[in-house]
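Example record for the data management plan.
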Amino acid sequence: MEHYVKSKGTTFYAIGLSYKKADAKIRGHFSLDDTAKQKLIEQATAEGIESILITSTCNRTEIYGFAQHPFQLIKLLCDNTVGTVEEFQKVAYVYKNREAISHMFKVGSGLDSQILGDFEIISQLKVSARASKKAGLLNPFIERLVNAVIQASKRIKTETEISSGATSVSFASVQYILKHVESVSNKNILLFGTGKIGRNTCENLVKHTKNEHITLINRTKDKAEKIAGKFNLVVKDYSNLQEEINASDILIVATGAQNPTVDKHLIQNKKPLLILDLSIPKNVHENVSELSQTTLVHLDDLSQITDETLEKRKLHIPLAQAIIKDVNQEFNEWLETRKFAPTIKALKHKLLNFASTELETQRKKNADFNEKQAELISNNIVQKITNHFAHHLKDDDISTDDSLELIKKVFQLEPSTHV
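Corresponding structural encoding:
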């Protein structure tokens, strides 16, 4: 079905960019923090966009929405980031209708993640949907689609082993540390930033390194203290950042700042320091690489780690794709129902008018006219007729469009708008 229009001749699009063609620097140009997302939503409302969904992670920035032309969505993105249209066109993708639907399923199921099987994006979709709904920018189509994607991702998690073990960027960072740092349990580790990636990284550090020398720093100290309380870790004030960096062997940066928060001037230690930057935009300035004792690794480097576990996960891709196809089919069936629902509603209204007119005629002719009985019978007949037409329209062997046009013509119904 290609008619996904709700009103104003709009079409469903997915526009965005990801790690596949855009490096960390370019992704940083199009990154949207919470403030930028809110401004984008407000601009979308002002410009008459009827429904929109925004996601921005370390791996991708995407907008799903209804527009007359995809440039309307591209403009929204460029107006609220430092990225330009020219820059976007070099690395971007634009999907329409069925392809846009398939893309969201692929993204939400972890099949398009930088690390195969990473499902962290699904929580982003949920948060984004809530924000759009709060702003009145979530129509039934996108809301139902998001719920279908969530359902598919849950099934893939439980019915396949594509996410066996931890598969996120946060786990990849700990895996890198275990592989490249000797005696890691005795090293001083500083985690700067306790947002979602920071929290997940902290949990993986505690679980896999058996290290008791982990320190947390966050601009908002109480957020770090909540996490530290779970794992009995040390929390330091943001003002102690330089001091703690120079006491560390490993520094993990997972802040949500739009500009670098760590540069070479903060680092004065004389011993080797491994820095992992898990942020988009990059939060560690590239000038730290000028320091001979410092090694800087960005999340794009971490995602290239391949191991036996990852190869085993790839074996489950066909089953995951089959699950997506199954859930997508259910969504398409719902879409077909949405397509003919206005016509069925108009038909029922027309039949009820016929019944009402006939009842009025019989009421005048018969002195002992049984009002309740007549209404009950006529309503039942109307319902049976509309159910019969609805069942016919659901038949895969007939052309829904042709049948809709015939029903409208025979019963002289007003043209209905596709939903």
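Summary line stored alongside the record: The longest helix spans residues 317-365.
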